[in-house]
Amino acid sequence: MSGAGLTVRDLRVTFDGFRAVDGVDLDVPPGDLRFLIGPNGAGKTTLVDAVTGLVRATGSVRFAGEELLGRPVHRIARRGIGRTFQTATVFEQLTVLQNLDIAAGAGRGPLTLLRRRRGVPEAVAHALETIGLAGLRDRPAGVLAHGQKQWLEIGMLLVQDVRLLLLDEPVAGMSHDEREATGELLRRVGEDRTVVVIEHDMDFMRSYARSVSVLHAGKVLKQGTVAEVQADARVQEVYLGRAAAPEPVAVPVAEEA
Amino acid sequence: MTTTAPPPAPTPAVATPPPSPSARFRVPGAFLLGAVLLFGVAPLVLSDFRISLLAKYLCYAIVAVGVSLAWGRGGLLVLGQGVFFGLGGYAMAMHLKLADAAAAGETLPDFMLLYGSGDALPWWWRPFANPVFALAATVLLPMAVAALLGYFVFRRRVRGAYFAILSQALAAALSIWLVGQQTTTGGTNGLTDIRGFFGYDLSDPVNQRTVYFVVAGVLLLLMAAARQLFVSRYGELLVAVRDAEERVRFLGYDPAAVKLVAYVVAAGTAGLAGALFVPAVGIISPALIGIVPSIGFVIGAAVGGRASLVGAVLGAVAVAWAQSSLSDAFPAAWTYLQGLLFVVAVGFLPGGLASVVTALRARRTRTAPAPAPTKGETA
Ligand SMILES: Nc1ncnc2c1ncn2[C@@H]1O[C@H](COP(=O)(O)OP(=O)(O)O)[C@@H](O)[C@H]1O
Ligand SMILES: [Mg+2]
């Protein structure tokens, strides 16, 4: 059954000799809500970059049985794989509605593109309700609060109709209420999709993860349920022990785009 | 299911007010006003000489329509529009020279007889004797060149300054090549002394006025078409590509294709402008399509507001008018002034004068909180 989900084999990404992802194997079955945790610089973002075609990688990444490595970014996206970024990236000059409409439209033909949008497409209206931004739909996305931008990004993935969502630290910088709302959103979104969430926040992970993979120095250290991962001695050593202490000063993380 | 939705946004939900009647009729009203000015007022109050000048400025305005699309909406700094303007202009001029020669009972255009390279017409001149081929070529040739160039450039992700420099280099190359082909392109002189336009004598002021009306009509039609592109889904997508190209890629679009469309349309527009320039002014030459004129093509749009169609068009006319008024009096100073205008507009007023108008209007109607001004949204 693993053939239908996300299957990563011996994935390697090297930056000028530095092995950011160093032989990762990962199996995310369809419908899973997988949390990907690990200290800063473990290679989590780079792993997502490799899966979505942003950085060159060797090895194999299959989704629904199809090899993704080597394909251009937009073709991978068209296979139903969507992602968000550590810093929310929306089209600031366009309205919330326009952002969602563009996300919904990769399959549109030239004639549709040349016409003006009339009304709100059903999928977009539905997503506006789901992400709770219906009241702000005609606002430029640039004026949204940080959390709202993250929701808008998730909404864009919903209308894009992706089957695999890769979310890079979606609740970073959110208030407690916003985190909770986002967690519920993830749960709902994950009902009929496969979701991979990169996250630092342990409480958040405990509440919402269905399974967890721990990444350390470019390798998968441990994979299992929340309880199994928390009980693992090596994980405690490299990660949980440190997470219990006050957050270390964040290592500057490489630009996403 | 709404019970689990994220908490209501902290900002109070703002229902967009229905567009006021004045806003609804603003666009058709503006077009009507433009038509009345161009077709009614200008021919009444301007002399024959001024009308010919205006026809020339409107040709620059047509280029600006394409610049507004490619640069204003698409973020492509098209600093080589002279290439496409030149291709359109030469295609038209070659046909008119051949028609002039045929009318005079010659087989070769006058300059070829004069510089006497040989007795046969070069093979690549021959198809231009056919009016349909020549007219189609004025638009399709620039579009084909832009498509070929854009395909490689955008796929290789050449952007920003590199794209601008490449465009400039191409404009320089074409004008230098033309200068070197004295016997087949007229060299530095270009193609001049064009007398007839599809059977009409261009020295007749009545026919000059007709040419003006054709130029004005084409400008209005192209503005209507561009406006449709601006408000279409493609227009929104183009702004998205301009502002966050990588993000668009992750939504399953190929930004190279999106940019290519804008670039090719802008090239066709410039080609058409070049084609109309020939009967309007009576000449096309390397000096009209090289590096400096290519920069000139975008300055009007920059000053008026590149993302705003009306701003770009009015800016192009105003800058062209200023150039012909000032460059006669102070030929050296104009070059510097042109550079200064460009730097000031791009550096300090990226929205051009149109953004000032938008800001003033927003201020006047600040009864309800206006959304943040967006450079992509000024129509
Ligand atoms: N484009 C890049 N060039 C060079 N090094 C990079 C690049 N992107 C990431 N890295 C390095 O790769 C390592 C993993 O980074 P990243 O995947 O962002 O970590 P994480 O998301 O787990 O915090 C870090 O040491 C980072 O400095
Ligand atoms: Mg990261």
From TrEMBL, chain A:
Pfam family, one: BCA_ABC_TP_C
CC per GO annotation: plasma membrane
GO molecular function: ATP binding; ATP hydrolysis activity
Domain ABC transporter residue range list: 6-242
Record's keyword annotation contains ATP-binding: yes
InterPro entries per record: AAA+_ATPase (IPR003593), ABC_AA/LPS_Transport (IPR051120), ABC_transporter-like_ATP-bd (IPR003439), ABC_transptr_urea_ATP-bd_UrtD (IPR017781), BCA_ABC_TP_C (IPR032823), P-loop_NTPase (IPR027417)
UniProt KW keywords: ATP-binding, Nucleotide-binding, Transport
Protein name per Swiss-Prot or TrEMBL: ABC transporter ATP-binding protein
Species in which this protein is naturally found: Streptomyces ruber
UniProtKB/TrEMBL annotation, chain B:
GO terms for cellular component: plasma membrane
Coiled-coil residue spans: none
Transmembrane intervals: 27-46, 53-71, 131-154, 161-180, 210-230, 250-270, 276-300, 307-324, 336-360
PANTHER family per the UniProt record, alphabetical: HIGH-AFFINITY BRANCHED-CHAIN AMINO ACID TRANSPORT SYSTEM PERMEASE, SLR1201 PROTEIN
Keyword Cell membrane in record: yes
Native organism: Streptomyces ruber
InterPro entries per UniProt: ABC_transp_permease, ABC_transptr_urea_perm_UrtC, LivM-like
Keyword Protease: no
Membrane topology: Multi-pass membrane protein
Locations listed in the record: Cell membrane
Residue ranges of the region described as Disordered: 1-20
Name of the protein in its database record: Urea ABC transporter permease subunit UrtC
Alphabetized UniProt keyword annotations: Cell membrane, Membrane, Transmembrane, Transmembrane helix
